[in-house]
Structures are given as structure tokens and as C-alpha cells.
Specification:
alpha/beta, Aminopeptidase, two-stranded antiparallel sheet, about 35% helix, binds zinc ion
Length: about 170
């Protein structure tokens, strides 16, 4: 089993934009941190991108094998600028194994995010390209709202990303 950590967006695609923050950069920082914690836990972990480059959606999922795990890392944004919280997506009509992975990560993030006052938006289901086209267990995590300045203030200058990476790596 290999763990594939997928930093959303990259290169010409910045993803969501917050005040002073780009989704593509924050997602890469989180993905690198998750890989590091996986390796410490002696799990094989790879990145779909390890620097600021554009990778097409098909190329992100093309190397997956059936018993792999795919974790896509994204940050949310909202018209309201005050929306907050984390959510974890799986594809619609997921297998039990996918549901289990979603549950395990959700449980760990719930414990962590209580300490940082980041609300739970729940477990959700949507046929995003990388979820629908992964031939293995796959989830997509919206870490928090990058365009909500109050939410970003909760984590900047803290150990949040390290703790987040530990919570996710420990759930796989
Ligand atoms: Zn995104």
C-alpha cells in the first residue's frame, strides 16, 4: 500500500485566494507535512506534486493501485468571507473501505480542531474528479476557509500544520 498525498492546484492554478494566502501554497505545505509524518510512521508516502507546478487532474490519479490511499488537500473559500470549518469528502456511494477512511480521518481532525476552535462541517459526498476516478480509497479534505481571516489567525504561528499532519497520517 502506498499513500498518495495530493496538494490541490499549483502553478498557473492558485486555487482559492485569501488575504496574503494562496490555496496552492498552503495545500503544498500541508501535503509535505503529511508525507513527513507518514514516513516517520514507516508508511510509504508519495506526493502528486512536490513543488509549485500545474498537474492535470488525470495525472494526479493515474499511478494509483487498488490498495493505495489517496488524500487530496484543499482549502475552502466562500462568498461570505465568514464561513468557517473543515469538511471531508468521499465520492457518492462510497465503498465501506472508503467510508472507514473518511470516518477515521474525521474522528482525528475533530479532536484536533476542537483545540483550535475550527468547526466541523461534517462528512460529505461529491463526485469530484479525483474522488470519482481514483481506483483506490480516496478522500478530499477542505482544511479550513483560507479567505476567512479570523480562521487563518487561529493557526498562523502555531503548530497547527504539524498536528494536522500527525492527525491525518495517524488515521491512515
Ligand atoms: Zn481547492
Amino acid at each position: 500500500m502506498s499513500i498518495w498525498i495530493d496538494a490541490g492546484h499549483g502553478g498557473k492554478d492558485p486555487g482559492a485566494v485569501g488575504k496574503g494566502f494562496l490555496e496552492k501554497d498552503q495545500a503544498l505545505t500541508v501535503a509535505l507535512a503529511i508525507q513527513k509524518e507518514c514516513i516517520i510512521l514507516e508508511k510509504k508516502a508519495y506526493l502528486t506534486r512536490s513543488d509549485d507546478r500545474f498537474v492535470s487532474l488525470p495525472n494526479r490519479v493515474t499511478n494509483l493501485k487498488k490498495d493505495d490511499v489517496f488524500i487530496s488537500v484543499h482549502f475552502n473559500a466562500s462568498q461570505s468571507k465568514t464561513a468557517s470549518g473543515f469538511e471531508i469528502f468521499a465520492k457518492k456511494n462510497p465503498t465501506l473501505e472508503i467510508k472507514q477512511l473518511q470516518n477515521d480521518i474525521h474522528r482525528n481532525l475533530l479532536i484536533l480542531n476542537k483545540q483550535y476552535n475550527i468547526p466541523d462541517r461534517g462528512k460529505k459526498f461529491a463526485d469530484f474528479y479525483v474522488l470519482k476516478n481514483s481506483k483506490c480509497r480516496a478522500v478530499l479534505i477542505e482544511i479550513l476557509f483560507i479567505d476567512n481571516q479570523n480562521e487563518m489567525k487561529k493557526i498562523i504561528g502555531t503548530n497547527y500544520y504539524k498536528n494536522l499532519a500527525l492527525a491525518i497520517a495517524g488515521a491512515i
